Batch of 2 targets.
Target 1
Amino acid sequence: MKFGVLVQEGPYHHQSSDSAYQFVKAAMDKGHEIVGVFFYHDGVINSTKLTDPQQDDRHIQKRWSEIAEKGVDLVVCIAAAKRRGINDDVLAPGFRISGLGQLTEMAIKADRFVSFGA
Amino acid sequence: MSEPTKMMFMMRKAPYGTIYSFEGLEAVLVMGAYEQDISLLFVDDGVYAIKKGMDTSPLGIKDFSPTFRVLDGYDIDKLYIDKESMEARGLTLDDFVVEPEVLDKEQIAKLMEEQDVVFPF
Amino acid sequence: MLHLVNKSPYSSSSLDSCLKFATKGAPIILFEDAIYGAMAGTSLESKMIEVMKDHPVYAIKEDLMARGVNNIIPGVREIDYTGFVELVEQHRPCTWS
């Protein structure tokens, strides 16, 4: 099946990004296609390469970048990103900044669309 | 051409305290251009997003409630409100900048079951 | 429709709103802080038992473990993220956060 995912919260502050990651990983392990992960609201903060957590904690941004290496499209909403100081200069590998049209297209393409956060 | 995707924006959050309803509305406006089957549902504190008489000028926050009135121009005319949420908050249709269709919980449950995607904002 | 609830029922109306609109038989997944609603011996237990007459209720094992909740209400089904995915395969999801 084709799954689309929306992440609405920033990393560390909320568990939503962790939950979305666990869901995406489990879905990929089961052989599903992830048509994309869209980062919206504070969710855009997941995409900054300036992320530098303590050594003994998970690295949320790197985990997403690893998911991207497996061919998953990670889309950061441009309007939400600009508001929060996220641009191409700070963007981590595997993420790309684009418009809400991408969210629409994911929702159209996906058999199932799952939102995490809010 | 395939059937349009049925997408519902479920507005459940109050405006200004958090950004969900404002950014949710921004998403609605973009999706309006894609000729899909879009509806907006106001439920819980989401009903406050369309209240008349907002004046955010002392806060310097952008008042986005007028934007709800132009949704028609984006081919988004399916606006619904949960009767219980509205009445619990002492509000009537006269209190809103738009005129959503008032639905009871059974009607909303049925509408939700018909959706391909529900976006929570 | 599959209902996903992630907020504690003690501090949020998410679960109540979900229950208001969930049709009979629709499954509910409790995850993140919502799993506190699955704990036995609480003021919410009798309510959850009523809920389970109309809805299968699932709680995410990883979230229960993380929060040290091991006494769950009989009838609540523990699932991992693979189980979460399987439920999404079967139903279109709606998130109540």
Target 2
Amino acid sequence: MKTLELRNLAKTYFDPYAGSHVTAVHDVSLDVQQGDFVSVVGPSGCGKTTILNMVAGFIPHSGGEILLNGKAISGPGPERGVVFQSFALFPWKTVLDNVGFGPKMRGVPKAERDRIAHEYLELAGLSHAANRYPNELSGGMQQRVGVVRALANNPEVLLMDEPFASVDAQTRMTLQEELTRIWQERRPTVIFITHDVAEAVFLANRVVVLSKGRVLDEVEVALPRPRVWDDLIEDETFKRLSAHVLHMVRSA
Amino acid sequence: MQRDVSALQPRWLTRGLASAGGAAMFVAPLLALVLIWAIAVPLFDINPRVFPSVAAVAGAAMESIRDGSLIEHIGASLLRVGLGTLIGIVTAVPLGIAMGVSPAVSTFLTPLFRFFSVLAGIAWIPIATLWFGYGFGAIIFVIFNAVFFVVAYNTLLGVSTIPLTLRNAAASLGAGRWALLTEVLLPGALPNIVTGIRTGLGFAWRGLIAAEMIATNVGLGYMLFVARDFYRTEVIILGMIVIGAIWLLIDRLLLVPLERSTIERWGMVRRA
């Protein structure tokens, strides 16, 4: 079943420095099935974050359609959860209240949303940090909170915008493994934006390669799960797929 | 070898000693000033009409406490500053947030608010007495004015510095307009709002004293001004000490703890 459909999506905006209109996204069409995990990879300036911002409803699109379960989206909404590169946790709320924010907005009573928040914190191995404030946590822990905060709201689709780009390399690998584990347990529909080819292949069922605002190619990733780096780093299929995607990204 | 004292003491004691030490460090220079004063007045045989002795000020304090006049003046001043500040905050915060939400409006209004922030308080006294007559109304207006522009400007600044991603995050989690206001904009702007209240209250307190000299017949400012007519320097100095002491108490017992319990806990400003 199709959850998300992008039909000839385009974005043109006026660049005051260039003094002219710039097209960031030309003509992107993409289908995402329910429970699928799709990575969108491309060099910086390829339009990948612009696409995510349009799907999230943060910026309007200038052409084409964005359909969620067959209905056109307008503005941001809780059915599209977002994980931000900058984490975007509320500094004045405890970890528990950050994760319980979505349920609170739905009108879930305090006791019930605390139960939901605790459940998701346990999923991310963060139960001990429930009553701490975001600034007391490491970057990796903050982004774990960011991920489960979005998941706790039960979104139809989870939009992740280079979420692990600002944590150190070791933490990033751990977070990637945890994400694949959580995805297997909960099966959310995920669109994952990244410029890191290995990350895109490691996480996804399908990698969409983007270049200059257009879809260059889509690559199926039929690697078995659960995926762990210690196995995949030596895996021939993983190496071949990564190399294939990398060549496309670099030649683009 | 360095001994770890903290390991030998219970935590509350360590903390109590630290804050007692902090208070002592704060009071010590003030006590030194009093000491110099106590020595200098008899040493140089200063005329009491120019500057009173410590004993004379202490005597004036005892007298004004006994006859109840000091409490009356303090009460009148605190009531005015409390009421004016309350009205100022209650009107300035919503307005500041409303203006801060729109970048265009906030850019347009910022110079205006900076202009009126500078004018806040004392400069308004003459026109306030023309508008409201001599008395309560004029003084409340001056205090309100001192608080209003500074708090509104700082609120506007606070709202406009909240990262866009936080607003986007709230919206994508289902926050509507009201939730955005109460859950994101208000707490996000709180560090600036508290700064605004601290600055505004400082302006208001000074404005109050000045206004009371001109526009009323009770209050600390009035007490100072009337004492001048009778060459009662000991009452003037007593009033000045009370004015300064009350401000320090308000700041350290009310505003600083407010900052500590919220903003610093959130890591939004670092303690200097």
